[in-house]
Amino acid sequence: MNRLTRTSRVAFFLCDIQTKFSQHIYKYNHMKAIAAKMISASNILDVPLMVTEHIPDKLGNTDPTLDISKAHVLKKSTFSMLTPEVESECAKMYSNKGVDHVVLFGIESQVCVLQTTLDLLDKGIAVTVLQDGVSSIHPGEIPVALARIRQAGAHISTSESVLFQIMHDAGHPGFKQIQSLLKETKKESSDALDAFCLSSKTQFLFAVYHKDHYPAGDAKMQAPKRGNGSDFDPNAKGFETITCTIEGTVDHTDSLGCAGRYGDGDLQWMTAGKGIVHGEMFPLVKQTPEGNFTRFFQLWINLPSKSKMVEPNQLMHWSENVTRFSTPDSQAKATVWAGSLHGHKALPAIRDSWANTESNDVNIWFLQLKKGAHFTLPKSAQGSNRSMYLVEGSEVTLDKSTIVPGSSMVEFKDPASGELVIENTGAKDVDILVLQGKPIGEPVAQHGPFVMNTRDEIMQAFTDYRRTQFGGWPWPEDAMVFPREKGRFLSLKGQVDELPPSKDRKDEL
């Protein structure tokens, strides 16, 4: 997945922001304000702007308050923006070299934005979708669509973060004008972030379920077509990531010189703290016809203000040691990634984590229920929140009354009020993620992978990154993949490599 850099041949795609939708789209004016900012930025940075209008004869033209006089404006009837006409226009850009990265914003997130992303990725064009610049009629569709977009291999970022990525440094000829634009649109940008990105109600900032089927690799672990897996957001500050693997292999490298290979049930905690550059790749280690499957969750958990500037850190819990148990009838299994469940305690969280204080009631559980199985969740501590994600299977029933269909998220109003019985009443086995804990209770300011408490701290984070590059990148390749024969390992700079407890090293390929 190509990162957005100063050398990218980038185009901005504005998707279907039309007059007919103005009364129906969630936080329409907030989303439109970000579009207006990006239009202005495209003129300053000389970035081509592509605008589509979906069946304008029926749905109206682009909102007249948006100045698209310098844009390429095309009509469409398909949900995807990538029509043959749009593709032809993009191929002519940059002296016929074509576009290699698209920054996408507009509506609706789960329809036109998603389908445009998938079509662009299929053409080998990298995509960054603006979290503060997309919306839908139903707000619940937005996080689901963004998770699917990210799972497909696109970046999720914010308008301000993208503009700084394109400029790269303060020496860019458009820097002062962009800086002025950001000051002029500060309130509108803040309102959009409040609407689409920010939450202080939960300590979990982000949760995504990755389920990917990559092809078999050749002798050099190369794919049949461009790409060798994809990486996550390269920069992080002010929070921690928890990567909960189920199957598949992940290769990690970072700006501290640390590295690792993990997967198939391993659990990685990484504290970004004062800042780190990192990448996770999915090496094509298997050459057999079935290819390379990956299944895992990546979670972002916030850090309290006192811990946001701690030194970055990493902790690996190998699968052999991760806490798991089954119900007496063997019809349900539980993995305890954090906290405890029915007397089964997880391994310790990483040093500076909010989860390291037991009274914060942070719990991360993965439940697998066979058809007809049931599992009882204990009540939470007072003041905790709880959410449940049904990621595999067709349905479950809660307390014999509430049916939850597949691919759904449930937020519980009062998990401290009593136990909850989950029953698999569908036709397939189900997989469920449960997140629980007390909120940190501090303001959240977020710009892509920078999470602080105030907007000023976010601006300082950008300054810190431009000044230090969070230590730079000590690896010979942007996307590091270790040799096929390399087994699971964790390498922390200045320490002896840590290996899983398998005595016979059966994990080696």
Tell me about this structure.
- It contains nine helices and 30 strands.
- It is 21% helix and 32% strand.
- Residues 227-231 and 503-509 have low confidence and may be disordered.
- Helix 1 (28-45) packs antiparallel against helix 7 (175-184) and helix 4 packs parallel to helix 5.
- Strand 23 (395-398) and strand 24 form a beta hairpin.
- With 509 residues, it is α+β, with helices and mostly antiparallel strands.
- The protein has a six-stranded parallel sheet with strand order 3-2-1-4-5-6.
Question: How would you describe this structure in keywords?
Answer:
single chain; 509 residues; alpha+beta; six-stranded parallel beta sheet; six-stranded antiparallel beta sheet; disordered C terminus
